[in-house]
Write a structure and sequence with these properties.
mainly alpha; elongated
Length: 380
């Protein structure tokens, strides 16, 4: 053996000795510091068995014959692989997230409209318009035309929604074009609120258009318009049409017209009796002018008829004259404030006062609620 080969062999033996010694020392240290497999499994709360960083006994690698090459034994089959990832700074400190509740399903259009109408009708609830507008809009977005008209009206009036006349007009015009005359009437109410002359003129045209197309609320509104204008015959015509189509206000307005007719007839009869000198008729006529019942209030006429009745010996007329004259103005004129206070005074005559007579103009005519009758219409 040559000298160089002997040196090489000696170095190799020394290196193998050093590797073996180092490995053996490391195994001993790890064996002392590493718990058993059972201990490791028990110490791992997540069930991930942590194998020792170093096995207890190295074995030569049969696939690599190089001297000093060793490998550590594999873990038993089925064992979980250790998690070699280092945890983040916040890992394990964050509270678990609560499960998210499923989104609430939208209310069906018909139910949303019905609930919106119920909210709108809660007269004493100051927040009723907010709830009604939200429900009407929900139903309208699902294609309910009744809800679309209702929301357009609330939007145009600024009830429960930001007031936007232009947007409301656009919505209602589309509904009217689709064959819904109530939409034109609601638009007329919105335009009627404007101070602009052109808008108010347009409101009248829209109201008449809706009425001619058979909308009961619009027909009743036409009757109110003509009654206030003094055209009784035309007012009655529209009231009758509206009543036939189901308008409750039209029925009431017709009844008031009838009472007005009766009051006029009663006034005519009373004047004839008073003209003949009937004391009771004179006193009753005085009361009508004093109270403004069946006649327009006129204190001068009331005083005239009280005097005429007192002259005929009517006791209650004399008592009333005494009360009126007890508080005259500085120049002997009738005190209007005192007259108003005396209008319903108890004269102590055991009911000799005439019963209140209906006004010749009847009670003031009333409009239907703008959304009245919508529930009876088809949704689409």
């Amino acid at each position: 053996m040559t000298q160089s080969r002997m040196v090489t062999r000696a170095v190799t033996l020394v290196l193998m000795s050093l590797v073996s010694s180092t490995a053996t020392s490391q195994v001993v240290e790890d064996a002392e510091a590493t718990p058993s497999e059972a201990e490791s499994a028990a110490a791992a709360p997540d069930g991930n068995i942590r194998w020792p960083a170093q096995p207890t006994s190295p074995v030569p690698d049969p696939q690599d014959p190089t001297p000093g090459n060793i490998r550590w034994p594999d873990p038993p089959p089925g064992a979980k692989t250790p998690d070699a990832r280092l945890p983040s700074a916040t890992e394990g400190t964050t509270a678990p997230t609560a499960p998210t509740a499923p989104a609430t399903a939208p209310v069906a259009a018909a139910d949303a409209f019905s609930q919106g109408l119920a909210a709108y009708m809660r007269k004493a609830d100051p927040r009723r318009f907010d709830e009604a507008a939200a429900l009407f809009l929900s139903a309208a977005l699902q294609g309910d035309r009744r809800a679309s008209m209702a929301y357009g009206y609330l939007q145009g009036m600024g009830l429960g929604a930001e007031r936007d006349r232009a947007a409301a007009r656009t919505r209602l015009a589309a509904d009217a074009a689709a064959g819904w005359p109530r939409a034109a009437y609601l638009q007329s109410l919105i335009d009627g609120e404007s101070r602009d002359a052109a808008s108010r003129e347009r409101a009248g045209s829209l109201r008449e258009s809706a009425a001619s197309r058979g909308d009961a609320a619009a027909q009743n509104a036409m009757g109110v318009h003509y009654q206030l204008a003094g055209d009784r015959a035309t007012a009655e015509m529209w009231f009758r049409r509206a009543a036939d189509n189901g308008s409750p206000s039209a029925r009431s307005n017709l009844a008031n017209l009838t009472r007005s007719d009766n009051a006029k007839q009663a006034g005519t009869t009373m004047r004839k009796a008073a003209g003949s000198g009937d004391a009771n008729a004179l006193f009753a006529l005085a009361r009508r002018f004093h109270r403004g019942e069946g006649e327009s209030a006129d204190y001068g006429q009331a005083l005239r008829y009280y005097r005429a009745a007192a002259a005929k010996g009517h006791a209650s007329a004399r008592r009333m004259l005494g009360l009126i004259q007890s508080r005259l103005g500085p120049e002997g004129e009738v005190d209007p404030v005192w007259m108003r206070q005396l209008a319903n005074a108890d004269l102590g005559d055991g009911g000799n006062l005439s019963a209140p007579a209906p006004s010749i103009h009847g009670a003031a005519p009333t409009l239907d609620d703008p959304l009245a009758g919508l529930a009876a219409l088809p949704a689409r």
